[in-house]
Amino acid sequence: MNSLLQVEDLRVTIPAGAARFTPVRGLSFALEKGETLCIVGESGCGKSLSSLALMGLLPKSAEHQAERLHFDGIDLSRLNERQMADLRGNRMSMIFQEPMTSLNPVYTIGDQLAEPLIRHRRAGRREARDHAVDLLEKVGITAAGRRMAQYPHQLSGGLRQRVMIAMSLMCSPELVIADEPTTALDVTIQAKILRQLKQLQSELGMAMIFITHDLGVVARIADKIAVMYAGRFVETGTARQLFSRPLHPYTKGLLSCLPVPGKTASGEPLGSIPGVVPAFIGESSSCGFSSRCPYAAPLCEREPDLTERGSSHACRCVLASAELDELRWEAA
Amino acid sequence: MEPAAAQIPLELKGVSKVYSVSRGYFKKDGQLHAVKKIDLKLKSGEVLGLVGESGCGKSTLAKLLLGLIAPSVGEVRVHGQSYASHDRIWISERIQPVFQDPHSSLNPRKSVREIVTAPLRVHKSGDPENWDKRVTETLDLVGLPRRLMDSYPSQMSGGQRQRVAIARALILRPRIVICDEPTSALDVSVQSQILNLLMDLRKELSLTYLVISHDLSVIEHIADRIAVMYLGRIVEEAPAREIFSRPRHPYTKALLESVLSPNPELGVPDVHLAGEFPNPLEPPTGCSFHPRCPMAQGDCSGTEPQERIEGEARIACMHYDSGGGQFMADAKP
Predict the structure, then answer these.
(1) Which of B187, B191, B222 sits opposite A267 (nearest CB)?
(2) Which of B75, B81, B61, B87 lies closest to B4, judged by CA?
């Protein structure tokens, strides 16, 4: 059986005068129905650009190429803008990080929610409205009928984000891409929204790509995880594999940086990764992480491939599995 | 034993701040109690963590402590002396802020040298000949390479900018630093660098911190004592270890349930908290938390809870259970 989403060697390039930036440099993955893939990485690693590329929403200045970009057997790279628009918001949809900037301030919540159903399914106003109220209740909004007549500015941040989620689910998509959907929210609301999202996901059987930098969120919702650094996946695996047996030095470093109540000793220094995420990503042959890696060796001049290190666990590092297992994160 | 007033670096006594909010031309202005009857003491050399959701009054509290706004009722004291009898210059020598977003808290048109020198100039502190030396010393202290002296904020990373903000706060050698979400705008790997730096500086300069954050994992890591705020009030205050091992107030418990530790064996928690954050212009009667509280009883909507003291902890709840973990067991269906 074919996977719902198949991506091979996805690249995003931004021409800048004579030079070219390559913020996304060859991502490959497959996503099954109902599965959650979390893409983790720090700012500037290319995680948002990859998701925009999948949705065909890259800004005009950027281009994407891929060996293969198949959604349920459809070759996305051969669709024209109109055909892509038929898919978007319909069979695949997106939840953005900033609900204030991605909702239209001059339309009511009800109008915006109904639009995808009317556009894609030719639903009548009444039908679309009923479905919208139903979904608002499902994402935990009380007095949904009253909310339909309100404008985005009348809602709190948490409510707006729930409206965004409801909107993305209007046409019961098979794939939802969520880009940091809970980052701007308070912790109690974050937990509630994530819980509702997971519930709806299993009800509707949809696949989800969840993009975040929050490792706590990742651990709780992911089936599969891809750790991204400087435009590439450096480690992929199941949630359990990555948290209990991280292999790549970057993954190890990230985990060592996290204060964990009850685990890290209060007041003791946390681990840290020296240096900063490289701002400029051109085509280079060396390992992108070598400048910050405490184990960098002359061998790291050549970037290795993402190689299997056990079933469904892969890592992009020149060191062998056994050596990586031995490594402790020791930053200067 | 009560320490002498002068030994308490910072103290809030019955502080309230009320804003008048216009509700339209024909309506009477609304009264917004941003913070309400707050008593809080910082002990010398400790880190006090302040947690709460957006809109709970954390930032108003920070502004009061910095002397940027005056309380409507009550008194703020630093080393036993009331803010009311001193000016901003006097206050800012003793207490300095580090803000959340180093992109907007640094002037983009000024170099690092100018930014970090500014407090010395404002305070006419010492001999101007020595200013450069003092700036380099402070940059060394916060781990910024000296070659960045003449760089501008736009040329630096988020972590470096936050170090500049810390250097600016420390150049006058204040005793107290108020950190308002010091790492929220930073990446994980940079967050840990800044937290480590703050902890090192605390030892080196024997600083007292008030750290405001919504991230309980961060607070747990660095704070000695934690105060939890809800709708302008402190609902619970206790040593950090106690807050995490046996939270008493139902709101504290809900906050702790929401912490997502990186454990793939656990799913997303079911937080026992009803409804939405209330409109601060029309706060609920009685205990302001009762509409969302899983343990609310009849009298909660009528009477404001009095503060109770249990050991080193203070709790503003009538029905809290001091048994700690019991709440979790009760609440399970």
Answers:
(1) B222
(2) B81
C-alpha dist (Å) from residue A60 to A30, A64, A136, B111: 27, 11, 34, 35
What confidence tens digit (pLDDT) does each residue in B209-256 have? 999 998 899 999 999 999 999 999 999 999 999 999 999 999 999 999
Cβ pair B15, B82 in contact under 8 A: no
Strand order in the sheet with B81-82: B30-42, B10-21, B73-78, B81-82
B240 interaction partners in chain A (CB closer than 8 Å):
266
Identify the residue with better confidence: A268 or B275: A268
Length of chain A equals 332
Query: B188: which chain A residues are within 8 Å (Cβ-Cβ)?
Result: 42, 213, 215, 254, 257-258
Cα–Cα distance for residue pair A159/A163, rounded to 1 Å: 6
A258 contact residues in B (CB cutoff 8 A): 188, 192, 217, 262
pLDDT above 80 for A167: yes
Q: Which residues contact A249 (CB under 8 A, 6 or more apart)?
A: A289, A293, A294, A295, A317, A324, A327, A329
Please give the average per-residue pLDDT across A177-189, as a whole number. Answer: 87
Euclidean distance between CA atoms A252 and A256, whole angstroms: 6
The CA distance from B194 to A118, in Å, is 50
Distance between CA A230 and CA A281 in Å, rounded?
Answer: 7
Q: Of B62 and B55, which is predicted with more confidence? A: B62
pLDDT at B326 over 60: no
Q: Name residues whose C-beta falls within 8 Å of residue B12's C-beta, 6 or more positions apart in sequence.
A: B38, B39, B40, B41, B61, B64, B65, B74, B75, B76, B77
Which band of pLDDT confidence, cut at 50, 70 and 90, is reported for residue A325?
confident
Size of chain B in residues: 333
Query: Residue B16: what pLDDT?
Result: 95
Cβ distance A259 to B261 less than 8 Å, yes or no, reads no
Quote the tokens at residue A113.
């929610």
Q: Which amino acid is at A233?
A: F
The token duo for B122 is: 């404002």
Over residues A15-30, the mean pLDDT reads: 88
CA dihedral over A43, A45, A47, A53, signed as positive or negative:
positive
Mean of all residue pLDDT scores within chain A: 90
Phi and psi torsions of B207, nearest 5° = -90, 155
All structural domains of chain B with their residue ranges: 245-333
- Report all structural domains of chain A as residue ranges with CATH numbers, in order of start: 5-222 (3.40.50.300), 243-326 (no CATH)
Q: For A195, which residue in chain B has the nearest alpha carbon?
A: B268
Query: A79-93, A119-133, A313-327, B81-95: which has the minimum mean pLDDT?
Result: A313-327
pLDDT over threshold 80, residue B46: yes
Taking the C-alpha atoms of residue B189 and residue A273, their distance in angstroms, rounded to an integer, is: 6
Confidence at residue A228, expressed as pLDDT on a 0 to 100 scale? 95
Element (H, E) at B227: strand B225-230
Q: Which residues contact B319 (CB under 8 A, 6 or more apart)?
A: B295, B297, B300
**Spatial distance between the Cα atoms of B165 and B169, rounded to a whole number of angstroms:** 6
Report how far residue B167's alpha carbon sits from residue B184's, in angstroms, rounded to the nearest whole number.
18
Nearest to A220 among B159, B220, B266 (CB): B266
Query: How far is residue A189's CA from residue A179's CA, in Å, rounded to a whole number?
Result: 17
Q: What is the pLDDT of residue A221?
A: 96
Q: What is the pLDDT of residues B16-31, one digit of tens each?
A: 999 988 877 888 888 8
